[in-house]
Design brief:
Blueprint (H helix, E strand, L loop, with lengths): L7 E3 L4 H13 L4 H14 L3 E3 H17 L10 H19 L2
Antiparallel strand pairs: 1-2
Helix pairs in contact: 1-3, 1-4, 2-3, 3-4
Length: 99
């Protein structure tokens, strides 16, 4: 089995992460440091493929961003946005924890 740093993931397979990042970017009140995490993640997702370790990093960033958005963040979302966040966090869990 190849090392995780050598394994590649097609960014098209990370669409749930990308959609969740879009919701966080549009709806969360975040400072410039958190916005930088979004920018960095989008730059990585602009490629056709990323290393598995990069994909895991994007998943971790999404987890941090949702938490940083605050406890009332989800309550302000409509059903489609909440579903996008849930799907993105589920994909992040799959990448980070292998669930």
């Amino acid at each position: 089995m190849p090392e995780p740093s050598e394994q590649q993931v097609a960014t098209a397979e990370l669409s749930r992460l990308a959609a969740a990042l879009d919701v966080v970017d549009a709806r969360a009140e975040l400072n410039h440091r958190y916005r930088k995490l979004i920018t960095d993640s989008r730059q990585a997702l602009a490629a056709h493929r990323v290393r598995l370790t990069q994909a895991r990093g994007i998943g971790k960033k999404l987890m941090v961003l949702v938490k940083a958005a605050g406890p009332d963040f989800r309550a302000a979302l409509d059903d489609a946005e909440a579903a996008a966040i849930d799907a993105g966090l589920a994909q992040a869990d799959e990448l980070v924890y292998g669930t």
